[in-house]
């Protein structure tokens, strides 16, 4: 009973907040609605027993991706009304693409249900361990069988970080806005001023 | 799982990673002051990894294949051969790099660190016997390459090359990953052996799609036609030492990965992928030969030359036999010094202001100005064209021999005919350097490191290289047989 209630609560909130993501005029509000919808999707995942995905949704999507969206929306000066201007013009193309995707989904799932696709049988190395949650089971596989790849993935992230710094970091030597008082005080009239005797009609060259 | 054996088999990768991490700390604390020292230490680490890989290769047998981490990684003779080539090419590229960037005050100690991590990724790729290991290794090496391509960040063309390489490389990775997910879906496992068993009675339609996507993604990485369009632009824009690296080490890694993929998990269905490889081989030879004809930029010509060479290498793979795989490895071992030598020569061609001489007009009459460079380039170009007394001929010879032995006489004949077209622009190098009127631009003196790499490459491709045919053939045969293990 309480499960059904919780399901409808989360499901209604997911769809409602997802609709608001599209409908709200202010992009910052859109991102906030998106965060709400992520939270409720996480609730749905808990209900089906996929607590790992629920945690991923909260930690990765809310914690990192949505905050990144917020940064982008707030820091880049994007004129959203201009982006929205072509909406009616592109609407038919959007609908066409949606129809294509839908047909593909229906065909693919239909073919699978009809038995036209012979999928491989899982080798069974990674069956969930009975009596343990799926975070436990995933961790048990990740830190034993796939330890090597897990560490290598860490090095990939390190390389990405080093790369970003190498390509953007500059030695801060001559940034604007730094006042060198000693240099200002050492200035003398000879180098600071010039005498000009401009001819009439000819400009002054500075 | 036996961790001691696993750590031993992955020793080269682990050692290089630790070296990379320590050098990264050094470079973080000392900035650019000790960039030269970091480069030397990185080269030393790569040399150590090369010795260790050779040792692993020497002790591997049919029983002791060096499987590690429960079938994710295999340090067999095939991987060992490729790793020795990759590490040697990376060392050569590290040797020629600092002087190039020093002139523009752009050298930073992160450069050798990124090269080290790239080498780790390539080592993982060639040793991968699981789709996951392959993908992670590929991403590690690609990510390092993207940064290296735009390392001269004040240079518009370098940034453009980096961006182009990044976007197209990400697209290729996406295609590859999509293919892998299909293969995984239809085989039920990511392990090469399990895939081979699952596909023993043929590919279904869906699995065939997966195989085609995987091959297309890898063809992109080896820059085989029709996925070659990025090569000339990226090679031209990237800083020349980085181009030398792109044309050598990652290419070896990608070719070896393609060979292992075709001859291990897909080995049960040779007929299904053979025509794809034959098409890519022929198209690469023809496009590589014709595309370079109208080019004036030397780096673009060498880029097309690398496309052309990939075609010859793929002929060895198309033969789908141990002899073909061995011929492919021999060709790679000859291709690496030829291409690094050519780029080292390009690096040495700069005027007194440090501007690179990058077009045919700039090298007119080079023999009267810098005879040593001109004669070395002559050897390298004749060797790339496959003219007999030079070592490049031997590579083409073994590849065509393998194709003929596998009853692919037509393929070999078309390949030989197209290599004659390709000879046109290699000979154009020689004609411009030796017979055209000299231009008046001066050429600066070259650092000793560049001379060392150029002369070493020239000696290897010269007829003296034939002294290597015995050991090289024996090692390549050993590597190729380790690939053909029965299920």
Automatic annotation (TrEMBL), chain A:
<feature type="region of interest" description="Disordered">
    <location>
        <begin position="185"/>
        <end position="206"/>
    </location>
</feature>
<dbReference type="GO" id="GO:0048038">
    <property type="term" value="F:quinone binding"/>
</dbReference>
<dbReference type="GO" id="GO:0005886">
    <property type="term" value="C:plasma membrane"/>
</dbReference>
<feature type="transmembrane region" description="Helical">
    <location>
        <begin position="31"/>
        <end position="50"/>
    </location>
</feature>
<feature type="transmembrane region" description="Helical">
    <location>
        <begin position="56"/>
        <end position="78"/>
    </location>
</feature>
<keyword id="KW-0560">Oxidoreductase</keyword>
<dbReference type="Pfam" id="PF00499">
    <property type="entry name" value="Oxidored_q3"/>
</dbReference>
<protein>
    <recommendedName>
        <fullName>NADH-quinone oxidoreductase subunit J</fullName>
        <ecNumber>7.1.1.-</ecNumber>
    </recommendedName>
</protein>
<feature type="transmembrane region" description="Helical">
    <location>
        <begin position="146"/>
        <end position="167"/>
    </location>
</feature>
<dbReference type="GO" id="GO:0016491">
    <property type="term" value="F:oxidoreductase activity"/>
</dbReference>
<keyword id="KW-0874">Quinone</keyword>
<keyword id="KW-0520">NAD</keyword>
<dbReference type="InterPro" id="IPR001457">
    <property type="entry name" value="NADH_UbQ/plastoQ_OxRdtase_su6"/>
</dbReference>
<comment type="function">
    <text>NDH-1 shuttles electrons from NADH, via FMN and iron-sulfur (Fe-S) centers, to quinones in the respiratory chain. Couples the redox reaction to proton translocation (for every two electrons transferred, four hydrogen ions are translocated across the cytoplasmic membrane), and thus conserves the redox energy in a proton gradient.</text>
</comment>
<dbReference type="InterPro" id="IPR042106">
    <property type="entry name" value="Nuo/plastoQ_OxRdtase_6_NuoJ"/>
</dbReference>
<keyword id="KW-0812">Transmembrane</keyword>
<keyword id="KW-1133">Transmembrane helix</keyword>
<keyword id="KW-1003">Cell membrane</keyword>
<feature type="transmembrane region" description="Helical">
    <location>
        <begin position="6"/>
        <end position="24"/>
    </location>
</feature>
<keyword id="KW-0472">Membrane</keyword>
<dbReference type="GO" id="GO:0008137">
    <property type="term" value="F:NADH dehydrogenase (ubiquinone) activity"/>
</dbReference>
<feature type="transmembrane region" description="Helical">
    <location>
        <begin position="90"/>
        <end position="112"/>
    </location>
</feature>
UniProtKB/TrEMBL annotation, chain B:
<dbReference type="GO" id="GO:0048038">
    <property type="term" value="F:quinone binding"/>
</dbReference>
<protein>
    <recommendedName>
        <fullName>NADH-quinone oxidoreductase subunit N</fullName>
        <ecNumber>7.1.1.-</ecNumber>
    </recommendedName>
</protein>
<feature type="transmembrane region" description="Helical">
    <location>
        <begin position="329"/>
        <end position="349"/>
    </location>
</feature>
<feature type="transmembrane region" description="Helical">
    <location>
        <begin position="6"/>
        <end position="26"/>
    </location>
</feature>
<feature type="transmembrane region" description="Helical">
    <location>
        <begin position="113"/>
        <end position="138"/>
    </location>
</feature>
<keyword id="KW-0830">Ubiquinone</keyword>
<comment type="similarity">
    <text>Belongs to the complex I subunit 2 family.</text>
</comment>
<feature type="transmembrane region" description="Helical">
    <location>
        <begin position="38"/>
        <end position="58"/>
    </location>
</feature>
<keyword id="KW-1278">Translocase</keyword>
<dbReference type="GO" id="GO:0012505">
    <property type="term" value="C:endomembrane system"/>
</dbReference>
<dbReference type="GO" id="GO:0005886">
    <property type="term" value="C:plasma membrane"/>
</dbReference>
<dbReference type="GO" id="GO:0008137">
    <property type="term" value="F:NADH dehydrogenase (ubiquinone) activity"/>
</dbReference>
<feature type="transmembrane region" description="Helical">
    <location>
        <begin position="78"/>
        <end position="101"/>
    </location>
</feature>
<feature type="domain" description="NADH:quinone oxidoreductase/Mrp antiporter transmembrane">
    <location>
        <begin position="128"/>
        <end position="422"/>
    </location>
</feature>
<feature type="transmembrane region" description="Helical">
    <location>
        <begin position="165"/>
        <end position="187"/>
    </location>
</feature>
<keyword id="KW-1133">Transmembrane helix</keyword>
<feature type="transmembrane region" description="Helical">
    <location>
        <begin position="199"/>
        <end position="222"/>
    </location>
</feature>
<keyword id="KW-0874">Quinone</keyword>
<feature type="transmembrane region" description="Helical">
    <location>
        <begin position="275"/>
        <end position="295"/>
    </location>
</feature>
<dbReference type="InterPro" id="IPR010096">
    <property type="entry name" value="NADH-Q_OxRdtase_suN/2"/>
</dbReference>
<dbReference type="GO" id="GO:0050136">
    <property type="term" value="F:NADH dehydrogenase (quinone) (non-electrogenic) activity"/>
</dbReference>
<feature type="transmembrane region" description="Helical">
    <location>
        <begin position="406"/>
        <end position="428"/>
    </location>
</feature>
């Amino acid at each position: 009973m309480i499960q059904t209630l919780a399901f409808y609560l989360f499901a209604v909130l997911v769809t409602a907040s997802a609709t608001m993501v599209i409908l709200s005029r202010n992009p910052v509000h859109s991102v906030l609605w998106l965060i709400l919808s992520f939270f409720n999707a996480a609730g749905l995942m808990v209900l089906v027993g996929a607590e790992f995905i629920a945690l991923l949704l909260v930690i990765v999507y809310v914690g990192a991706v949505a905050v990144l969206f917020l940064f982008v929306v707030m820091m880049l000066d994007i004129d959203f009304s201009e982006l929205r201007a072509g909406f009616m013009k592109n609407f038919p193309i959007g609908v066409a693409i949606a129809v294509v995707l839908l047909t593909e989904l229906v065909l693919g799932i239909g073919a699978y249900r009809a038995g036209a696709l012979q999928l491989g049988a899982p080798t069974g190395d990674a069956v969930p361990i009975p009596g343990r949650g799926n975070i436990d089971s995933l961790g048990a596989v990740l830190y034993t069988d796939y330890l090597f790849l897990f560490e290598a993935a860490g090095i990939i992230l390190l390389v990405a970080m080093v790369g970003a710094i190498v390509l953007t970091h500059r030695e801060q030597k001559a940034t604007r806005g730094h006042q060198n008082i000693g240099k200002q005080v050492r200035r003398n009239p000879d180098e600071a001023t010039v005498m000009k005797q401009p001819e009439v009609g000819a400009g002054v060259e500075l | 799982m036996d961790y001691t054996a696993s750590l031993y088999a992955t020793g080269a990768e682990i050692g290089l990673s630790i070296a990379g991490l320590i050098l990264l700390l050094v470079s973080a604390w000392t900035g650019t002051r000790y960039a030269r020292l970091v480069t030397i230490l990185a080269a030393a680490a790569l040399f150590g990894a090369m010795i260790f890989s050779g040792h692993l290769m020497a002790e591997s047998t049919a029983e002791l294949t060096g499987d590690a981490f429960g079938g994710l990684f295999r340090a067999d003779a095939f991987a060992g051969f490729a790793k020795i080539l990759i590490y040697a090419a990376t060392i050569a590229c590290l040797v020629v790099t600092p002087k190039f960037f020093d002139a523009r005050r752009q050298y930073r100690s992160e450069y050798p660190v990124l090269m080290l991590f790239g080498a780790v990724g390539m080592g993982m790729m060639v040793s991968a016997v699981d789709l996951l290991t392959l993908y992670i290794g590929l991403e590690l090496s690609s990510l390092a390459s993207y940064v290296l391509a735009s390392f001269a960040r004040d240079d518009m063309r370098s940034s453009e090359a980096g961006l182009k390489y990044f976007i197209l490389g990400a697209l290729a990775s996406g295609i590859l990953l999509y293919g892998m997910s299909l293969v995984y879906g239809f085989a039920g496992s990511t392990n090469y052996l399990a895939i081979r068993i699952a596909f023993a009675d043929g590919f279904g339609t869906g699995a065939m799609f997966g195989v085609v996507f995987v091959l297309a993604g890898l063809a992109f990485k080896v820059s085989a036609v029709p996925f070659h369009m990025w090569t000339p632009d990226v090679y031209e824009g990237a800083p020349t030492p980085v181009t030398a690296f792109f044309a050598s080490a990652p290419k070896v890694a990608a070719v070896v990965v393609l060979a292992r993929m075709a001859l291990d998990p897909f080995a049960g269905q040779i007929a299904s992928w053979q025509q794809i490889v034959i098409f890519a081989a022929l198209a690469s030879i023809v496009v590589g030969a014709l595309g370079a004809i109208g080019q004036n930029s030397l780096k673009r010509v060498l880029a097309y030359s690398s496309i052309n060479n990939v075609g010859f290498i793929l002929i060895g793979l198309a033969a789908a036999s141990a002899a073909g795989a061995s011929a492919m490895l021999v060709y790679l071992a000859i291709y690496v010094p030829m291409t690094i030598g050519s780029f080292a020569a390009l690096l040495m061609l700069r005027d007194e202001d440090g501007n690179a001489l990058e077009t045919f007009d700039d090298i007119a009459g080079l023999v009267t100005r810098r005879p040593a460079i001109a004669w070395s380039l002559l050897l390298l170009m004749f060797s790339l064209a496959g003219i007999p007394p030079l070592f490049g001929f031997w590579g083409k010879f073994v590849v065509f021999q393998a194709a003929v032995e596998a009853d692919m006489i037509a393929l070999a004949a078309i390949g030989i005919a197209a290599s004659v077209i390709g000879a046109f622009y290699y000979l154009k190098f020689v004609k411009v350097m030796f017979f055209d009127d000299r231009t008046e631009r001066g050429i600066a003196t070259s650092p000793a490191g560049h001379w060392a790499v150029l002369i070493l490459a020239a000696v290897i491709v010269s007829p003296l290289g034939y002294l290597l045919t015995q050991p090289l053939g024996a090692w390549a045969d050993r590597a190729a047989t380790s690939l053909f293990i029965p299920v």
